[in-house]
Specification:
6-stranded parallel beta sheet, about 190 residues, 8 helices, 6 strands, alpha/beta, about 35% helix
């Protein structure tokens, strides 16, 4: 689900990592898949240092999960306690809980975020970043250089993004909400 050192090591075996500069403007999942394959030696080494040794989500299956959108219509209901009862609660981008607790709950386990909103978080939640350009990948790496080793921020795997896109029959990058839904469907018994 996320980029890991194991995945990068496998890619490196098939690559000749030279100093060629690559200009990447990724607009489709297929273009994102080639991101790691197109990295320069400098970028590869830096990225390798800032991703987990293996994907921490492989083989994980939570019992119940809540996917909480950002819609203002949530203010019409008091779902907070019901949302917080789930093992895992996923939110998106800048969705706040403070001041809205009775409507949306207080718990956030995972936050899927576009890089424009990274590394926003309200607590110790895990961030899953959707990266769609080399510039945004560099922003992620700069953040990881300064962040403590205990920081739980990951980059969604290009293959996972492509899988979601193909599952929808699309050629474009899926929204963070769609990425979150597919992630939860693969890591939760009940969403």
């Amino acid at each position: 689900y996320v980029i890991s050192q194991a995945r990068l090591a496998n890619e490196a075996k098939a690559l000749s990592l030279g100093n060629a500069q690559v200009s990447l403007k990724m607009e489709t999942p297929a273009e994102i898949v080639y991101l790691v394959e197109e990295l320069t030696a400098r970028t590869y080494g830096t990225l390798y240092q800032h991703v987990p040794a293996s994907d921490p989500f492989i083989g994980v299956l939570h019992d119940t999960c809540a996917l909480v959108g950002n819609s203002g219509s949530l203010m019409k209901h008091n779902y907070g306690d019901e949302i917080d009862e789930h093992n895992v609660v996923m939110r998106f981008n800048l969705a706040p809980t403070v001041g809205y607790e009775k409507h949306v709950g207080t718990k956030t386990t995972l936050r899927v975020s576009e890089m424009e909103y990274f590394p926003y978080r309200e607590s110790s939640e895990t961030i899953l970043a959707l990266i769609a350009s080399e510039k945004l990948l560099e922003t992620f790496m700069e953040y990881r250089t300064m962040a403590p080793l205990t920081d739980k921020s990951y980059v969604l795997s290009p293959e996972f993004i492509e899988y979601v896109s193909k599952s929808l029959g699309r050629g474009s990058i899926p929204s963070v909400g769609t990425m979150g839904l597919f992630f939860m469907l693969h890591t939760c018994r009940k969403v």
